[in-house]
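Handout, section B. The chain below has 204 residues.
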Amino acid sequence: MPASPVPANSGPPASAADEPLEPGATLPPGRWLLLIYRVPSEPSRLRATVWRRIKSLGAIYLQSSAAALPASIAAERALRRLRSEILDMSGTAVLLSCEVLAGEADVRSAFQAARDDEYEEIVDKCADFIAGVDKEYAEDHFSYAELEENEVDLVKLRTWLARVRERDVFGAAGLQQALSSLAECEEKLEAYAARVYAEEAEGR
């Protein structure tokens, strides 16, 4: 995997490669961004912080401390920020723009698997949401307070799915099931809202 490193912040003045991308800039198609880093072993929370950040970006680990994302403007900016944070932790980090000469199918497969895992988690949370609304029916809870709580939870599910779709650049198979599950949640909440409005009207 040939790569062109982005120079570290220490040493000579930064080159153009270290400068933020200009608005409207584009990246070549079929390339990957690779962040190779090292953080101090202590305190252990530093490693955990970086791991959580990398996972939140949807990156995959090709090996320990080497995380990859399909190249995009948003991904590069996010990884540049993370690199800066790692340096602030007294760690080391280099960000590379790469193309895969052999084994790209494996890299894509790992990236797709990561997205499918996220979609599956959303499906599970949608099932929990539906079970929660069903519980409101079972316990005869039909108030604006319960409705508002469920609306907040639904917004979180929508936002989560939108975030995963944004980084699902290759179209993982799990998307359709996640969309279907979210639609079920929306229908369930719509029916529950109608019942709340009816109950409140009768109580006036």
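Note. DSSP finds five helices and five strands in the chain. Compare this with the example in section A.
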